[in-house]
Amino acid sequence: MREIVHIQAGQCGNQIGGKFWEVISDEHCIDATGTYYGDSDLQLERINVYYNEATGAKYVPRAILVDLEPGTMDSVRSGAFGQIFRPDNFVFGQSGAGNNWAKGHYTEGAELV
């Protein structure tokens, strides 16, 4: 069985990624707390493609969320499924690039990497 690591970067990537995890969680019968509520053996067998099993039969998305500023991360955390992510999978800086590619590439982004 394969395992997929989902990487979402920037404001757009994290906004789309947040919706992606809502849909995937619904398809895999995982609620906003990370609990599996389905009854399909096949579904449970394949749940490890996108999720790691944590303590207490909770499932955590195998995802890394990256941004130069904490604002988008705060939006993801406060969203419907924000609590299922591991806190250490959020990687962010303190100031954004202000839609300036050079600043994001050479200064803010370089420090984050």
From TrEMBL:
<dbReference type="GO" id="GO:0005525">
    <property type="term" value="F:GTP binding"/>
</dbReference>
<keyword id="KW-0342">GTP-binding</keyword>
<dbReference type="GO" id="GO:0005874">
    <property type="term" value="C:microtubule"/>
</dbReference>
<dbReference type="InterPro" id="IPR003008">
    <property type="entry name" value="Tubulin_FtsZ_GTPase"/>
</dbReference>
<comment type="similarity">
    <text>Belongs to the tubulin family.</text>
</comment>
<dbReference type="Pfam" id="PF00091">
    <property type="entry name" value="Tubulin"/>
</dbReference>
<keyword id="KW-0547">Nucleotide-binding</keyword>
<dbReference type="InterPro" id="IPR013838">
    <property type="entry name" value="Beta-tubulin_BS"/>
</dbReference>
<dbReference type="GO" id="GO:0003924">
    <property type="term" value="F:GTPase activity"/>
</dbReference>
<keyword id="KW-0493">Microtubule</keyword>
<dbReference type="InterPro" id="IPR002453">
    <property type="entry name" value="Beta_tubulin"/>
</dbReference>
<dbReference type="InterPro" id="IPR036525">
    <property type="entry name" value="Tubulin/FtsZ_GTPase_sf"/>
</dbReference>
<dbReference type="GO" id="GO:0007017">
    <property type="term" value="P:microtubule-based process"/>
</dbReference>
<dbReference type="GO" id="GO:0005200">
    <property type="term" value="F:structural constituent of cytoskeleton"/>
</dbReference>
<feature type="domain" description="Tubulin/FtsZ GTPase">
    <location>
        <begin position="3"/>
        <end position="112"/>
    </location>
</feature>
<protein>
    <submittedName>
        <fullName>Tubulin beta-2 chain-like</fullName>
    </submittedName>
</protein>
<dbReference type="InterPro" id="IPR000217">
    <property type="entry name" value="Tubulin"/>
</dbReference>
